[in-house]
Amino acid sequence: MPRLFIALEIPREAALSLSLLRGGLHGARWIDVENYHITLRFIGDIDAPTADELVHALDRIGRHAFNLSLIGLGSFGSKKPHSLWAGVSASPDLMALQAEIERICQRLHLRPDPRKFTPHVSLARLRGARVHDVVQYLGARSNFRTDPFTVSRFVVMSARESVGGGPYVTEEIYPLTQAKPSSQPIEAMPKSSINSR
What we know:
Elements: E1 3-9, H1 12-19, E2 28-30, E3 37-44, H2 48-58, E4 66-68, E5 70-76, E6 83-88, H3 92-107, E7 120-126, H4 131-140, E8 149-151, E9 153-159, E10 168-175, H5 191-194
Antiparallel strand pairs: 1-3, 1-9, 2-7, 4-8, 5-6, 6-7, 9-10
């Protein structure tokens, strides 16, 4: 059975910005552009009845679409770097969506993910990359940032057993509802919300 995970897709424009970061680091195996995503929850191998329960439980999530940006680069494995990633802008909506998904997984008694949720997009797996080279690579691209994009859905994806990095298949799609425009006149809004941008 394929391994399952819940994720956000990366839109084309942001993926193109990420693709320009490829190259320039010895020992990096770059993730294919079509496989960029933000993992919300790794599920792993589960049996078909549990997968069905998960699919139906996720369908009850009723959250609004929200905006994200990708910002900054980093690596996992400080003494022996093993992967490069792009960071994700701080977002209460993202954290709330992930927390709700986590509660659903716990109710279904799915094996907990031991890692703290750190939203990111994996860019490359590293093998034999020198720390000095990784530091230089990251330093030269420290001002990386994408334009904001709207997250209008989350998905369940599957991956066959491999070295990592895809190919991934979208199994289920869960749209997020569009926020209703405020009917409150702008002059009646508090000043803080008018000047919040």
